[in-house]
Amino acid sequence: MTTNPYLNAAPSFIYEDKRNLSPPDGSDVKPQYVHHVSPNPPPEISHSTPTKKDPRERCVKFAVAAVISLLLLLLVAGILLGYYYSSSCLHGRQCGDGNCVWESQWCDAVKDCPAGQDEANCVRVRGSSFLLEVYWTEAKEWRPVCAEGWSEPRGEASCRDIGYSRGTYFKSGQQSSDSNGGFLSVKPGSDPQTSILRQLVPSTSCHASSAVTLRCTDCGNRDDSSEAPGARLASVGSWPWQVSLHVSGSHRCGGAIVSPRWVVTAAHCVGSGPGPEDWAVYAGVVDPLGPLFNPAHAVSRIIAHQDYSSQTRQNDVALMKLSEPVDTTASGKVRAVCLPNPGLNISDAENSWVTFFGRAGNADSGSLYLMEAPVSLVHPAECNGSEAYSGRIPEDLLCAAQVDAGASVCHPDSGGPLVAQAEGLWWLVGDGVWGEHCNGHNKPGVYTNIAHHLNWIYHQMQKHQDA
């Protein structure tokens, strides 16, 4: 059955069939019309004129869009700044105090970091031969210096760049060196009094591969000693770098001379304590009468490591600068010990000794004597083992045990040196932190690892060399 699409759209006209009626005359026939109604009438066309927007409304919308765009821009900038400050310098190097400098500004003889970190530790001596090396920023590597054109004034300038004061320079030398990365050579016409960083240029060759060696101070020599086993009294001049640090006329801690103007000791000896004017440094002292017959050296500056922790004893190292240099040439009683150069293998040391001020066997409790005892370095894993310190020893500390198990090496004295002999010289390996065997425990002594803090020591010496 077919559905009429117009049935419900509009009324229809229907023809009625009447059989009995005669057909109408043609004149009476009128056309019939069927109305077709569209289901959806066409839309009306409006000819109204559009209304104009209010200018104030347009200004408000523009201002809102501008504010949103600005907020989005600030958000993106904040994210980028946060990433920049939370990460390392993207195109440079960190000064260590939140500032950054370009890579090319590092070791260029111009201090760009506020505290001069970019020019610290750019010159060094390496190994037991004291091979001079300079950091070359363009290649990002340490390079030896060719001996061609070298002179003593250039050696003095190099020592000042390391951190030594004027007047401590000892000597320069030469040795054969194989350098796959090339050498640094003296720039013709350069001023030998300026920073050594300004006097050098890269070179792919060096005559006979002869490189410069540099000794900034006469260090590491001492008079021969019997070095008998066990703890005993030290003789005058046997450990010429040992000093006694006094406050108010009494011994407070030990220390070691590393140059005529600088003494290394422990941070816990000097931190938050008396000022420099309250200290006196005695060299060449081995008994209670020593301070009466040796000059007292005044202290001009005390520098304790900024990250020293009294709880963990990390970074337990400090420096004292003397007002006037000690005389290390007059006699063998006062000399400097060598700081451990990078590349020095202390594990191959011929001897290791500790010196400290303590009570002699039959001495009264108030009298202190310089004691000496041979020790052996203890592997960190053993020192942190369950039978020793159970993981309490961080990487910047080291342990040394007495060689003679029956000897009494109890030394409550702090800051005293642990030294080792290698290649005929004596090197400062550590400064005394604590020794639990003094409390009846059979445990090794604990010392600050000087090699771990070598850069810090040289940076402080350089920063305060003229102050």
Q: How would you describe this protein?
A:
This protein folds into two domains: 113 residues, SRCR-like domain (Mac-2 Binding Protein), CATH 3.10.250; 232 residues, Thrombin, subunit H, CATH 2.40.10.10. Helix content is 14%, strand content 27%. The chain contains six helices and 22 strands. The radius of gyration is 43 Å and the shape is globular.
Strand order in the sheet with the most strands: 17-18-19-22-21-20
What is the highest CATH level, the class of the largest domain? Mainly Beta
Overall average pLDDT: 84
Q: How many domains make up the 3D coordinates?
A: 2
Tell me which CATH architecture of the largest domain applies here.
Beta Barrel
Structural class: alpha+beta
Largest sheet: 6 strands, antiparallel, barrel
Uncertain runs: 1-38
Give the ordered list of helices and strands. HEEEEEHEEEEEEEEHEHEEEEHEEEEH
Short key terms for the protein model shown above:
Mac-2 Binding Protein, globular, six-stranded antiparallel beta barrel, six-stranded antiparallel β-barrel, 2 domains, Thrombin, subunit H
Summed up, what is this model?
It contains 6 helices and 22 strands. With 467 residues, it is of the alpha+beta class.
Strands, helices and their partners?
Layout: H1 55-86, E1 92-94, E2 100-102, E3 123-126, E4 131-136, E5 141-144, H2 152-162, E6 171-176, E7 183-186, E8 200-203, E9 210-215, E10 232-233, E11 242-247, E12 250-259, E13 262-265, H3 267-270, E14 279-283, H4 290-293, E15 297-304, E16 318-322, E17 351-358, E18 369-378, H5 380-383, E19 397-402, E20 417-422, E21 425-435, E22 445-449, H6 454-463
Antiparallel strand pairs: 1-2, 3-4, 4-5, 6-9, 7-8, 10-18, 11-12, 11-14, 12-13, 13-16, 14-15, 15-16, 17-18, 17-20, 18-19, 19-22, 20-21, 21-22
